[in-house]
Amino acid sequence: MKKQWFAMLTVAAMAGSMLLPANGAEAGEGAITSISGLTDLLIGYDVMVDETRGEKATLIAYTDDAAASGVTWSSSDESVVTVDEQGVIWAKGVGEAEITAENSQGSFTQTVTVKENMTLEEVVDQYFISLLDLGDTAEMSAEELVEMGNSYFYIPHSIEGSDEEIIEAAENRTFTEQVAFYSKAEAYYNAALEKEDGNEEAQAKLEELYAYRDLVKRLDEDGQGIAYSWFSSRNELSEEQRNAFAYDDVFFFAEPQYRGMDTLIGMVGDTDTVEGIELKIAVYRFNAIYLGKGGAYTEISRFYIDKDTYPDYPLSMDIGIDYLRWSFDAEVVATTDFKGPRYLGDYCTSGWTNDIGEEVAPDYEKAVECYNIALSNKGAFDLTACLKMAFWYYDGEIVEKDDTLAFTYLVYGYYNGSNLHATQTNMPEGLFVLAQLFENGIEGAVDADAELANTFYTYSYKSAEAMIGRNDEVEDEDMEAVMADVTEALEAAGMELNGEIVIGESTDDFDEAFETLLKPYIGMIETYLGVKGVK
Questions:
Q1: Tens digits of per-residue pLDDT, 289-305?
Q2: % the chain with pLDDT above 70
Q3: In this structure, how many other beta carbons lie within 10 angstroms of the beta carbon of residue 235?
Q4: Cα separation of 277 and 96, whole Å?
Q5: For the chain, does the N or the C end have fewer beta carbons within 10 angstroms?
């Protein structure tokens, strides 16, 4: 039964991972002979927005040797799946629909299936409870099972008293060596009841456990407080204790937030096998729909794209790129991190090879859009994206030259960054550009400032110097070239390196200095990038 249930869940992860062949029609030159893309979609309830959401996917119609042109798309049942002029399908209801791609040479039809997303109970019961290794319980008595449950059930403070007293007691607790593994304790108590129906001690302990859960959920409704702090960020925790935290985050905060889910996904499945990856994909998809977490789709994309890490999983750049698209689509997910749009921006910069081996050309306009989304996501910082776009706008070769935007991206990256250090890739080049912009000024935006130019030239020179021999991704010759450019610029301006600036170690932190130097210009970030949330 479990294997059959698993097969139903993972078929959606497998479908579309290869080209779908022609459906029996005679194919003339230029006719559509295959479709690539995910054709099994999920739909389900999203607790973060309190509504039902369905997955999207992009279908690509191919001829024998290229993406088909002049394609029109249609759906036989838009209550199940809609499709737009770009081949984007969107799950609307459970069922099946025929999606037809047609061009002047004929048509191709493919069935698309929409299934209901798993429930939280199914995820926990079918995936995670199976990881609770209770050992051989066949020879254990009910009393022994209860005793085992007691060894994992620990209340770190009294549940009596006012809310304020309980919270104060929790905050003043002393951490013990006992593993607080509530899910495992629950499993042992239930096993005791199965062994001896009506076992009073097991029933009493379960009632105590659930009363404690109700208390914690009442005191900490969003899952951000006392229970989380008991187990998070503790270096002394054993692996079993960390696993306990992951399970218990689900146990306490099944709705709407359970950050332990990410840890649990890491425990589920084996990424060295196709079956193990499909287990992870199924739960990632659940997480993306149920909690609207776009980062789950970002993680799925790696299985299809990253062949160095996952060589045995079927490659599909079409599907991998598609998952990145939906990782930050507000109609599909409720939240995203910067990684999805950042990674898609990287692919749009370089181009990629689609599922029939055809090269997809770079799309720099789309790349800029993706990078901007990455940067604007709750003030998320990504120095690499900032530098890349600053160089584009400063050089004017890929996009139209715009010194104001180049300057603003540099200010955003260096001001809003964290853990900036001398040997970060492209750090010296970015500082050199910033120095030149300060030296020359930008009409209507930035006054020329020789002192700041000198400062950033010096940072550029010394960070390039620190980079030599310390970053395998960067050629020493390139850093020597930056140092030569700085020397030339300083000589032309009649300036010298600022001797007060010292970079001794490769991990020297620039945060405080850059925050002070660039603070007068941070208003440009919202003005020109529309980005809020800088520190």
A1: 998 999 999 999 999 99
A2: 80
A3: 4
A4: 26
A5: N
